[in-house]
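G., the chain you wanted modeled:
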Amino acid sequence: MEIRDYIAAHRARFIDEWASLLRIPSVSCQEEHQSDMLRCAKRWRELLQEAGAQYAKIMPSEGNPFVYAEYTPPQLSTHTVLIYSHYDVMPVEPLELWKSDPWEPEVREVDGEQRLFARGADDDKGQAMIQVKAFEYMVRNGLMNCQIKFLFEGEEEIGSPSLENFIIQHKDLLRCDIILVSDTSMIGKDTPSLTTGLRGLAYWQIEVTGPNRDLHSGHFGGAVKNPINALCEMLSRIVDNHGRITIPHFYDRVLPIPVEERKMIACIPFDQQQYMQAIDVDALAGEEGYSTLERNSCRPSFDICGIWGGYQGEGSKTVLPSKAFAKISCRLVANQDHEEISRLMAEYLKKIAPKGVRVKVTPKHGGQGYVCPIDIPAYKAAEKGFEIAFGKRPLAARRGGSIPIISSFEQVLGVKTILMGFGLEKNAIHSPNESMDLEVWENGIVAVAEFYKHL
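Predicted structure as tokens:
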């Protein structure tokens, strides 16, 4: 049976099974939903077995349990594919902004499109179901010639604290040739794309201390170094007039963007004026020599995320503060090591600190960036799957955000990940009224099935 005929014949069941997951409030960051995490894991185990997995079990971790499943084809398989997803979701608050119950899936027509609304409709129960239903089709129709492994976790929305230790402990169990993840987005419904890169992250809190107490600015101003002034001076030196980060050796590991990829980025539909109007700015900034889409996805960046100190109450208080604080971050690119960058940042800030203040740099968290080559066989198979499903070749697009687990997979298992994401910006993940376009969802099933056929 052809894939689209199979989807049409089983559409009602597919949506019912999807809905059975969406009704489970598997919010990993809220203690009140702890029992729901196990309930959701058990439901996934059932669905994976029903789809064709020969072996499925719930595996404990330091936190929420993992769901692991396997399928081995009757014939000798030449590839092993590991499918990763997560079953935890974000909180639903504020509830009053939802147009329907976030835990009771509802299909509604919006602007001529059939959309399913619920928390997790896209991120990531909807996208995970795309993977499972493509797998089901391939197995039930005797087409699957790969060994398939599934790994679903319940802590992605809280930073996957248990994942790296889990994959280290079960490295042999998870051994594979390629990893497949559907937890990213496309440029648009009519502009399919494959995510080929993610930026890493390094984040710090800076504390600058001057005098041992707040001082009268009339008695001490002009004679004592003000920590807020010092902090601003230091932070203003981190990016130069050309948009380059000035930390010594910061760019040592940064690789140039391949020419072929720059050509693809240039093909991405992008209206710079509309982009500026949407965020109400009259100019853009960044590293010279790169387009806006290259700057916010392929190049590193530096940002002050928060800054405070001194008196901030009503009225005036003429005070020279004892301390000043800032939270800062760098988005990193592939090959940059967040721990190395963290050390370089701390050394640089202490070096440029003016006399009269002391600087404390506290690293908060970080993660590695990731790039998938667009010439490997698995990427080509995914590209072909998208082309067949959506009617046009997908663009290769790097994303500016971070998914640290992807680099963890590469470091521990030594394999690349293909990011076959089917989300859209209008799906409103993490926000009220999260949804999934049912046409895109069905096309996603086709794309994944075709991926296996062309691998």
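The longest strand covers residues 200-209.

Shout if anything looks off.
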